[in-house]
Amino acid sequence: MNTGEKIKVLYIDDEQNNLNGFKATFRFDYTIYIAANTPQAYEYLKAHPDIRVVLCDQRMPDKTGVQFFEEMRDQYPDPVRMLITGYTDIESVIDAVNRGHIFRYIKKPWTDNDVRSAIEEANKFYLTSSLLVLKNKELQSAYDELGKFAYSITHDVRGPLLSIIGAIDLANGINNLDELRELLNMMSEAVRKLDEYIKNTHEYYKLKRGMLQFAEINFNTLLSDIAALFRIASRNNNINFTSTVIQNEPFYSDEISIKMILNNLLSNAFNYQRKAASEKLVDVHIEVKANNVQIKVKDNGIGIHENHINNIFTLFYRATSEETGSGLGLYNVKDALNKLNGKIEVESEPNVGSTFIVTIPGRTHGTK
């Protein structure tokens, strides 16, 4: 909301002399639009949705000013409505004020100061109301996220904990080492899911609250550090993990955000493999060119159905029930990319695999 621009005011009156006089008087203070009838007024409201104040004469040929404002409020509720009236019987006008059709009324004959003061008050009311609407939207969004988070806690934290408790209870009555190893593997998998959930939750709140810190990034070093975390999973699950980095120029960005993006994409590539596949693969290709970095993460896992592609970056959304994810990872990736002015493309086919292509522009050295 730009408060530095002139306030846009629409004045409606069936007397052309009044319209001309109003525009001549206030054209230097405000951006003035004038209409001789209500259809013309609606055209201005449609063409200029940022009109903040509407003044209308009560005595119009097709309908009264009160009637116009009552109709206008349904379609254009944001502009502040003020009535100009010379009627001695003011009861209908007061009723319109009480019912919220108009903000206030100005009695004829009016003075320049009366109108100017009324417009300034109306603009303050407009700004306050707009800010309140914005805060209500933010509050509703936070409330919706809290509800999803509460559900996620029940599903993604309590589920693995119950698995661990159940495995412990079973282990108390088992002496066979092979059966105990199987239970330990079950507990290990449950703990891994809990750890992933906690990590993604931490990243979510860090992204929401954190400031970006731009520095030079060496992608060979960065990928080497992250890839080390996946080598064990690669070996244990017989996944062919390959990586390539092409970087012949410096690149400046927020390293923490890029690490988080790459880590989440690789986690998905490893987690959503086809268990029965004989040749599993995950490949990451990073190339820096013309002050942009392209990160491509490819797998031949379970893939994503086209019906889910547009929703996978939504908070707590899961595209499959084959694996239990937090529903936070790709949401965090998208949020980080928004802050870095980056973009992400997805190519996927069920039972064939997925490719995520991330493009991030670099920052000029020394910029904030």
TrEMBL record:
EC number(s) per entry: 2.7.13.3
Domain Histidine kinase: 152-364
Domain of life of the source: Bacteria
PROSITE patterns reported for this sequence: HIS_KIN, RESPONSE_REGULATORY
Residue ranges annotated for the Response regulatory domain, each copy included: 8-123
Entry-annotated residues carrying 4-aspartylphosphate: D57
Protein name: histidine kinase
Catalysed reactions, as listed in the record: ATP + protein L-histidine = ADP + protein N-phospho-L-histidine
Organism of provenance: Nemorincola caseinilytica
One Pfam family per UniProt: HisKA
InterPro entries hit by this protein: BphY/WalK/GraS-like, CheY-like_superfamily, HATPase_C_sf, HATPase_dom, His_kinase_dom, HisK_dim/P_dom, HisK_dim/P_sf, Sig_transdc_His_kin-like_C
Keywords of this entry: ATP-binding, Kinase, Nucleotide-binding, Phosphoprotein, Transferase, Two-component regulatory system
